[in-house]
């Protein structure tokens, strides 16, 4: 064991060029700046974070509140800090502000949850502690003492490991009977794109849905290893570009394809990037390219803290997606443990939800028009996810109680269809949902799916 520890320490602490991590910082920061501007220009700040009457919170984060018109200020902080982050200007402050502002935006309403928002939050947390400003930064020009051409290998490897977890876990999630045997949900989605020029008619062919399903699983499971290999890396990165550009054309999944294209740059050889920037430096000596041979080192007290924290971080990342194994029922049906587990585009799930509120004393019943309380997107999410249903029932209870109803009881009739199956009753109609509470425990008022999806 001591020998293994020495070898591990020597490998993880091996010097690598800092240009790769610093270039990743620049690309990632500029991408987030562009994303922030995109939200502003498309009026999504107003639509998603100001206009709704009610916001669905994450369990344990009920204290995160919407900010009303101050949300514009929050996005401004996010955008400016992304710019400073990319420039490496007051990097530590910028990285903390970017992490906090982006994460607050993400936590305001889980209706807007996307896997790539979660990924960005995790990467930003890691970047707070990494020496990504040791090169190609204004900070390195202002403070030569932090300028370093070399960094420990584990600092670069931590981002690569995070990327690897995302890809491999997304691939493992695709090893299920719906995806591989039934080609679901791609066989439902692809025909809708048959009007695309040139290749459009192919998307109506069943074999194409199967090809995309099997190739998607194989791609996710293997691409990190091909990116790590020097010989296969150029071809693997070309595949990354083609794969994600194609998914962005076919499916409305926002910035995810571009985030993965940019993030995959972290796999390129740090020595090659260093040589590239050193050549550029010859033409313009004013560029913030570090030419010394210094090695960035953490102060002894901080080194143990950061390494220990990163170790705990990755243990959590490796274990957390498997929490669904502790829950009974079909994961795709209950979605208990589905979120934050890198399950990307695996379901076509539609629901219809009708709520009735009953006065506990008089027995008077009132039918609820969901549009009076929720946006269309919120209603869509609520109708298929149990934690949304519980929170919505609490909202209805409080609303009708304030309107004078005695201890309002909330009952729901909800039908859900999953991956082409016929709709089935999702919730026990006899359960007073106003008495239920959101928690990590299984919600036993969710009715069985009436079948199985085999796999991971």
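^ structure tokens above, recovered residues below v
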């Amino acid at each position: 064991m001591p020998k293994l520890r020495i070898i591990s320490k020597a490998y993880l602490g091996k010097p690598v060029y800092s240009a790769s991590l610093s270039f990743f910082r620049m690309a990632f920061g500029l991408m987030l700046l562009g994303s922030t501007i995109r939200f502003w220009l498309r009026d999504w700040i107003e639509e998603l974070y100001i206009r709704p009457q009610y916001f669905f919170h994450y369990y344990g984060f009920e204290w995160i509140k919407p900010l009303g018109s101050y949300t514009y200020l929050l996005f401004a902080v996010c955008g400016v800090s992304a710019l400073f982050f990319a420039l490496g200007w007051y990097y530590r402050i910028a990285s903390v502000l970017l992490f906090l502002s982006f994460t607050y935006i993400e936590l305001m309403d889980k209706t807007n949850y996307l896997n790539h928002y979660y990924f960005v939050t995790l990467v930003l947390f890691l970047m707070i502690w990494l020496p990504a400003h040791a090169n190609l930064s204004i900070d390195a020009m202002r403070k030569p003492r932090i300028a370093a051409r070399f960094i420990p290998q584990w600092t670069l490897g931590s981002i690569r490991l995070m990327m690897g977890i995302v890809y491999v876990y997304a691939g493992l999630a695709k090893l299920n009977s719906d995806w591989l045997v039934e080609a679901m949900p791609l066989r439902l989605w692809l025909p809708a794109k048959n009007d695309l020029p040139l290749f459009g008619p192919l998307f109506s062919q069943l074999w194409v849905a199967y090809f995309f399903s099997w190739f998607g699983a194989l791609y996710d499971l293997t691409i990190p290893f091909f990116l790590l290999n020097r010989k296969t890396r150029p071809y693997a990165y070309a595949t990354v570009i083609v794969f994600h550009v194609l998914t962005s054309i076919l499916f409305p999944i926002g910035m995810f394809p571009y985030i993965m294209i940019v993030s995959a740059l972290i796999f390129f050889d740090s020595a090659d990037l260093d040589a590239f920037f050193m050549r550029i430096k010859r033409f313009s000596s004013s560029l913030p390219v570090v030419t010394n041979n210094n090695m960035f080192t953490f102060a002894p007290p901080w080194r143990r803290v950061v390494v220990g924290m990163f170790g705990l971080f990755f243990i959590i990342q490796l274990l957390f997606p498997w929490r669904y194994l502790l829950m009974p029922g079909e994961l795709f049906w209950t979605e208990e443990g589905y979120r934050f587990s890198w399950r990307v585009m695996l379901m076509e799930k539609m629901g219809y939800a009708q709520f009735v509120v009953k006065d506990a004393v008089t027995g008077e019943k009132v039918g609820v028009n969901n549009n009076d309380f929720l946006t269309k997107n919120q209603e869509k999410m609520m109708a298929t996810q149990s934690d949304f249903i519980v929170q919505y029932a609490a909202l209805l209870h409080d609303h009708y109680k304030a309107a004078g109803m005695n201890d309002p009881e909330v009952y729901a009739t909800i039908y859900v269809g999953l991956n082409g199956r016929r709709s089935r009753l999702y919730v026990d109609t006899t359960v007073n949902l106003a008495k239920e509470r959101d928690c990590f425990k299984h919600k036993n008022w969710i009715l069985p799916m009436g079948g199985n999806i085999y796999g991971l």
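Residues 2-297 form one domain.
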